[in-house]
Amino acid sequence: MALVTVEAIQKRLGWPLTSEEEIKVQEFIDDCTVLIEDYCGKDFERRTDQTFDLVADVGCWLSIPRRYLPYLTVDSVSYADGVPLEGWQYTGRGLYIYPGWKAGHVVTVTGSWGYSTLPGVLGVATAAEVIRWMAQTPGLAMERTGEREVEFATASSPQSLSETAKQALRRYRASATTLTLRREGQ
Fold this sequence. Notes:
Blueprint: H1 6-13, H2 19-40, E1 47-55, E2 61-63, E3 73-79, E4 89-90, E5 94-96, E6 106-113, H3 120-135, E7 142-145, E8 148-151, H4 163-169
Antiparallel strand pairs: 1-6, 2-5, 3-6, 4-5, 7-8
Helix pairs in contact: 2-3, 3-4
């Protein structure tokens, strides 16, 4: 799922794009979307009535990976063999069941997660990065004639997130948090 459209980029630029430029811009949008999702550690697309699998460990607590947490609603929980589980609780960060999970078994969680409306900063950051990348298209970097040498640009890959984009996206990236410890059976 693209975080911004070609039309939005064109509107920000203030001039029409050629068909070749539209293809290039769409590829830049796709690349930037992948980089942002990787940087933030989450998928921003809304998933409805889908499943994901977790491997249970010893104990009553089963942690859910961060990429599934935004707006997660859990409809059902079962072991991979299809037998539904009763008495589980979704706590906002994981699943709790007493007397505990079967260690090593695969737990299938069915539910919905992700953003129904994307945060505006994602589109703004994507558009800014795509426009920056368009301005950094590769070309002549250095010219040498006899003893004279002129360097026009530095050799670097433009397809990476700028520090400005990373600062804008930091709210959606994992950060240090506190951990609540619980004793089993209490």
